[in-house]
Structures are given as structure tokens and as C-alpha cells.
Amino acid sequence: MFQKLIKRFDAVAALQLFQLLRYATLIFLGICFAKIGVPKSSIASLESLIFISGLVSFFWVNSGIQLLLSEYAGFSELEKKKSIFRYFITFQLFSCIASIAVYFGTDSAYSLTIAIFILFGTPSLLNEYVLYLNDRKKTLLAYGILTSSVLIVLSLGAISVLVIVFNESIEKCFGITLIAFVLVAIFRWVYSIFLLFRFSTPDFAIIENTNWSTLSILVTGFLLSGSSEYITGWFVKHFADASAFTTFRYGTKEMPLFTLLAAALSNSMISVIATDKKNGIALLKQKGLQQMHIFFPIAIVLTLTAPLLFKYVFSETFYESGKLFSFTMLLTIPRLLFPQPILHAKGAQQWLTIAMFCEIVVLILFAFIGFHFFGLHGLVAAIVISYLVEKLVLITRLKYGYNIPLSDYLSMNWFLFYSSVLLCAYLLTFIFY
Questions:
Q1: Cα 158 from Cα 155, distance rounded (Å)
Q2: How far apart, in whole angstroms, are the C-alpha atoms of residue 236 and residue 230?
Q3: DSSP secondary-structure letter at 41?
Q4: What are the contacts of 133-136 at 24+ separation with CB within 8 A?
Q5: Whose CB among 63, 90, 99, 401 lies 3.0–4.6 Å from 119's, allowing a Cys bridge?
Q6: pTM of the prediction?
Q7: Could you give the C-alpha distances from 354 to 46, 345, 365, in angstroms and in order?
Q8: What is the pLDDT of residues 89-123, one digit of tens each?
Q9: How far apart are CA 307 and CA 311, in angstroms?
Q10: DSSP code of 406?
């Protein structure tokens, strides 16, 4: 059965499914924690681990991955293997710096745990892309299923043993979940070493052979744009309590889902377009339409039902998170626009940074206004508006700078239809909830 499933997926779909598995695991664990009565204040410790580890690494991780994908198609076979080695070593060095900064720079009771999680977990984020670039879709899916399963078993199994056998309270033993996350991160890191032996060739000339100028442009851009989640998270952590932070994080879980899946498609298409511009852009349009047919209907249904789903799937206290979730579904509209891989393939990364700068300016402006007048809902509105601005800048650049209109890489009629229905769905939710 697994073999038949694999044959139906290409490498791009396998990468997207991997990201979906990772996200679904976190959602499943969140539901389980809420159902067994873990207090919001305790869940906040796990959310902080994920939040802080992402905060100190998202900008250089995403930049490194996108640069690798844009360069890889033009490398010789030997240089491809050397590049994988260089990027892993670079990721490991940056992870060491980030883990030290977290350990000495935070006052969290779990600072050591978070630092270890970053040290081992962050470099292993390269694993799925190494498998993707080497067309190991079967291994990629197996790796995703295995790591997700182990994380679930360790997290819930350890809590069950402590509560049932040793009669500990759920609140006291929840810290064991953080250890489970660290153990899985170490397992992924060990697998990274295996992948290095399998798919790379040692090359320690990192300074000479790495495109630092382009990498710095991408890092700057991600520091601006990718920080939106962390800017809004900072607002909540500093101007509200831990309960509100958990409410906001649960309510905006859509963002990681659509970010990961859209990024998987966008990243995977960079090397394809770089290899063959005309056919690559046509394939991007086809893949984008497939995404629309899947995610717009899901977003519409979730928009209409999220408040009730959160109330009954989680608990009554998560009803407000459900309303935020409905609002965040509007991010589906800009996320299903894909100008980025074309600009990456053309080596125009500076325009990505310019667009991200525009996004962050709009986000900060609207976040201050939105949070002051509308609270958590105002923050979500600021995210939606700012992300739409970023995409409009990139679309305009492709149109007038490279003569590539939006219709070349987007199925316009379907996009407008789905977007209109989604907007109507949110209006109904806003009125009746």
C-alpha cells in the first residue's frame, strides 16, 4: 500500500506531505494536551520552545535553504555534494551560536532544554531538502512518518506513565514533553550525519565557496518579513498574559500550515524554473492550481466552522482561538500567489528583500493600530494586510521588470472565484459568531 502511495507523488508533493505531517503532529499533540487537561500556562512552555527556537533561526535557515535550491541545478555532481556538506556545517555553526545566545540570553526555566533543542534540531531541518534534491521521495515520507510517530509516542507515553503509574499531576509532569522534543531533535541530527556520508563530499572552504552576498540579502529579507509571527508574538507576550499568548498561538496555527506547504511548493520550484524557465513557470501554474483546489475549500470550511471546532475539539476556553483561526484563513489568498520562485531562479533576490521591507513596515504600522483598537484580531488583520502588500510588490516587479504577467503563473479565474467565496465565508463568520 505504501509503495502505491509513493508512486502517486512526485518529489514536490512528497516534500509538501512531509511538511504537512510535521504540522499535523503538533496539532494532534495540542488537541491531546487540551483534552487531558494540561493547563494553558503549562502548554505555554512548549509553545515557548517552538517560538524561541524559530525566533533565533528562521531567517538564516530559510535563507540558506532557498540559496541552496536556487544554486543546486547549476552545479556539477561533485559540487552538488560539496554544497550539501558546506550548508550543513554552516547550519551547525549558526546553531551553536544561537543555542549559546538562548542559554545565556533568556531567563526561561527551560533555557538549557531550548538551547539543546536548537543545537541539534535546527541543522537537521536541512534533511528533507537533501532527500528532495536527491529525489528520495520514499525515504522522505518514511522519515516524516517515523519522526512524527516517535514524537507522539514519547510525548504522550511519558505523560501517561508518570500520571498513571507514579500518580503525578499532569501539570508537574508536562515538562517531560520538552525532553521528548529534544530526543527527537537529536535523532534527526544523527540522521543528518548519515545523510552527509551518503550524499555529500567534505568541503571546508566555506568562506570561499559560499555566496555570502546573496545569502546576506536573503537573511536581511527574512529578518524583515519572516519575523511577522515573532513580532505579533512579542506584542502578545509583552502586553498580555500567558493565557492570551496560548490563545493567539493556537488561533494562528494556520500560519505555520500554509507557510510550510506554500514554502515547500515555492522552494521546490526554484530549481525547476532555474533549469527550464518556460516549462518551469508552466509547471508552477499547474501546481499552484492544484494547491487552490485543495486548500481554498479547506480554508472556506474551516472559516465557517473554526469557532465551534475549537470549542468542542479543544475546550470552551479555546473558543476565542477559533475566531482568530477563521480570520487567519484569509492568509490563504496571498499565500497561494507564487512570484518568489521565479525571482529566485532569475537571481533577483534583492527584490525579495525590498518586498519584505515593505511588508514589515506595513505590519508594524498596522500592528500598533490594530492591537490598540481590536486586540488579538487587530494583529491578525495586520498580518494579512502586510503579507498581501509583499506579494503585490513582487507581482508588480515581475510584470514591469521581466514582462512576466500574473496570468503566466496563476490561474486567474479560479483564484478570483475561490478568493471571493473565502471572503464571503469570513463575513458570515464575523456576523454570526
A1: 6
A2: 10
A3: H
A4: 133/68, 133/69, 133/72, 133/80, 133/84, 133/271, 134/199, 135/11
A5: 99
A6: 0.71
A7: 34, 17, 17
A8: 999 999 999 999 998 887 766 788 889 999 999 99
A9: 6
A10: G
